[in-house]
């Protein structure tokens, strides 16, 4: 266990000393503020009467109240959870290849499994904290905007659903880790993330019947934010989601263990 703790502490220090950590937090804070301001425009259209783009985006919001706002934030957690955790994964698992220090890492007296495990834990924590910061910022902005319809029951239900959707989305970062390590660059995993987001949206619109079996669509079904016309997640959905996450981790660990890194 000493090797694991050493690897975990090392990865933690690398993250804390990186500017990327603070940039991602600022980005998610900015998004949370903008979501609240979008609700302000939906509540008071005259605020953005000179901006056609903002007015158009705000017009898609059915009602400027807490129920709609919190539901929107849960949907944002699924999209930004995929994107945010993907970016974090690429940085954590791809940095050694970019900086060309992978050989130095491999000669350390720490097992490669412990290295992968520590990177996986740090990736999950970082990604989860980003979504928590997003939610907290959005809530604060919503209070400042003075949205209607706040109840403790609505808030508690929403935060439980938000955390559930966030966790289920984030655990799917492991295939991105495998692709990052196997490709040894950022382009392929970035393309994979974009493809996943696009495919998820297309499947919801054009092939809703297969959403319970497409891993990145399952979190929305479990969180029940995909809409009443979509199928309900079943036991196979849970099996597929967990299997993809575990296979991604196992594949990454196997890559670090058996691949030729020269």
Write structural notes for this entry.
By secondary structure, the protein is mainly α. It has one domain (2-258). Helix content is 76%, strand content 0%. The chain is built from 11 helices and no strands. It has helices spanning 2-16, 19-43, 52-59, 66-98, 102-106, 112-145, 152-170, 174-183, 187-206, 218-222, 235-258. Helix 6 (112-145) crosses helix 11 (235-258). The two termini are 28 Å apart. Mean pLDDT is 85; it is low at 52-59.
What is this entry, summarized?
By secondary structure, the protein is mainly alpha-helical.
Name the helicity range: over 70%
Q: Which value, in Å, is the CA radius of gyration?
A: 20 Å
| End-to-end C-alpha gap | 28 Å
* Annotation field: number of helices: 11
Largest sheet: none
Sequence of secondary-structure elements: HHHHHHHHHHH
Total strands: the figure is 0
Number of domains: 1
Name the shape in a single word: globular
Q: What's the structural blueprint in terms of helices and strands?
A:
Elements (H helix, E strand, L loop, with lengths): L1 H15 L2 H25 L8 H8 L6 H33 L3 H5 L5 H34 L6 H19 L3 H10 L3 H20 L11 H5 L12 H24 L4
Helix pairs in contact: 1-6, 2-3, 2-6, 4-6, 4-7, 4-8, 4-9, 6-7, 6-11, 8-9, 8-11
């Amino acid at each position: 266990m000493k090797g694991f703790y050493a690897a975990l502490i090392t990865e933690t220090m690398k993250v804390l000393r990186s500017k990327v950590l603070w940039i991602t937090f600022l980005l998610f804070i900015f998004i949370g503020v903008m979501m609240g301001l979008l609700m302000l425009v939906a509540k008071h259209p005259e605020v953005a009467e000179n901006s056609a783009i903002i007015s158009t985006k705000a017009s898609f919001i059915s009602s400027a109240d807490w129920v709609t706002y919190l539901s929107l934030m849960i949907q944002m957690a699924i999209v930004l959870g995929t994107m945010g955790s993907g970016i974090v994964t690429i940085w954590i698992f791809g940095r050694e290849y970019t900086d060309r220090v992978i050989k130095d890492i491999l000669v350390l007296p720490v097992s490669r499994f412990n290295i992968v495990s520590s990177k996986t834990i740090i990736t999950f924590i970082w990604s989860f904290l980003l979504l928590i910061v997003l939610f907290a910022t959005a809530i604060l902005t919503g209070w400042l905007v003075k949205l209607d319809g706040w109840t403790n029951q609505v808030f508690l239900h929403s935060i439980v659903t938000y955390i559930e959707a966030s966790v289920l989305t984030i655990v799917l970062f492991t295939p991105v880790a495998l692709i990052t390590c196997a490709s040894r660059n950022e382009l392929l995993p970035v393309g994979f993330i974009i493809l996943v987001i696009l495919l998820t949206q297309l499947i919801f619109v054009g092939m809703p019947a297969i959403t319970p079996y497409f891993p990145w669509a399952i979190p929305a079904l479990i969180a029940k934010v995909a809409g009443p016309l979509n199928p309900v997640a079943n036991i196979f959905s849970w099996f597929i989601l967990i299997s993809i996450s575990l296979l991604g981790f196992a594949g990454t660990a196997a890559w670090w263990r058996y691949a030729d890194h020269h």
